[in-house]
Amino acid sequence: MALLTLRGLTKRFGGLPAVDGIDLDVDTGEIVALIGPNGAGKTTLLSLVAGIVPPTACTTFRFGDRDLVGAAVHEVRHAGIGTVRQAPTRFPSMSVREEVAVGARFGRAETLDHRTALHRADEVLDLVGLREQAAAPVTSLTLHGTRLLGLARALAGRPDLLLLDEPMAGLTPGELEHAIALIRALRDEHGLTVLWVEHVMPAVDLLAERVVVMDVGRVLAEGDPAEVRRDPAVIAAYLGVPDAGPAGWAGAPGAAPSEEGGPRAGGA
Ligand SMILES: Nc1ncnc2c1ncn2[C@@H]1O[C@H](COP(=O)(O)OP(=O)(O)O)[C@@H](O)[C@H]1O
Ligand SMILES: [Mg+2]
User: Which one of 21, 36, 129, 140 has the largest count of C-beta atoms within 10 Å of its C-beta?
Assistant: First the structure.
């Protein structure tokens, strides 16, 4: 059943469409990866769903039984959509636990006292593996730790749908393994639905049931990872944008045919 339904979603910046009439459905419990060359409109699409930027046009934005056309960012959060931006704003004076507690208090439409918010923060810090850093200043975290903090902050608001913007970029192999297992567990054990922008294609292969490929603001193709990888339109879109090909996607557009590396294999 569709949890999220978008029709005719459009955003123009100064007349130029960044998102150009997108129709998209995401079913409850799906992990959907959104890929595409740089500038395709992926981040803008997430920002539109998150209510961070208003659409230029949108005929349908349904989330569960709610109509969210034109909804503001707090209304989107209250409805149960959690967002982890590529470079989340942090509160530099706070501890990890305090910052996650902020997420708890500004998530779902519910009133939480500070104690309850801190308790919920501890629960999600356990879940993402940051419990030991709970008392540390947010500025002390590594890149991966900072990503986990952003995720924990979103999770503390008890979302049904998570929007993630390139959560795997720049991680070490060990961190990547942790991030993949975590997202899988969020879906399998906690019932979350995930709409996820990613360039790290091995992770997409492992996690996504469905891949939606965007190019110049439109949906170019969609299907399972193997189908999409073979799609001539997808290959053409990546070949048209040197260095923007999906890194590490075996046999993918952009991957070198025979040897490691190659001109378009190093997108990340
Ligand atoms: N705030 C903005 N103002 C003007 N143009 C923007 C803004 N945000 C994005 N764009 C433009 O919209 C297009 C899509 O950008 P973006 O959504 O960031 O793509 P992606 O995340 O797929 O790389 C790009 O051409 C980008 O320059
Ligand atoms: Mg982006």
Answer: 36
Q: Residue 43: CB within 6 Å of ligand 1?
A: yes
Per mean pLDDT, which range of 67-71, 239-243, 254-258 is the poorest? Answer: 254-258
Centre of ligand 1 from the C-alpha of residue 158, in Å: 29
CA distances from residue 151 to 9, 33, 134, 257, 265 in whole angstroms, order as listed: 26, 17, 14, 36, 28
In one letter, which amino acid is 257?
Answer: P
- Which residues sit opposite 164 in a β-bridge? 84, 196
Q: Are 49 and 197 in contact (CB under 8 A)?
A: no
Give, in order, the Cα–Cα distances in Å from 36 to each of 40, 92, 169: 6, 33, 15
- What SS3 state is found at 152? helix
Count of residues in the chain: 268
Q: Which residues contact 93 (CB under 8 A, 6 or more apart)?
A: 137
Ligand 1, atom 10, residue with closest C-alpha: 18
**Nearest CA residue ID for atom 6, ligand 1:** 13
For residue 76, give both structure tokens.
């989107």
Model confidence pLDDT, tens digit, residues 112-142? 899 999 999 999 999 999 999 999 999 999 9
- Read off the pLDDT of each residue in 45-67 and give the average, rounded to a whole number: 97
Ligand 2 centroid, distance to 36 Cα (angstroms): 9
Share of the chain above pLDDT 90, in %: 78
pLDDT at 268: 35
Measured from the Cα of 37, ligand 1's closest atom is 22
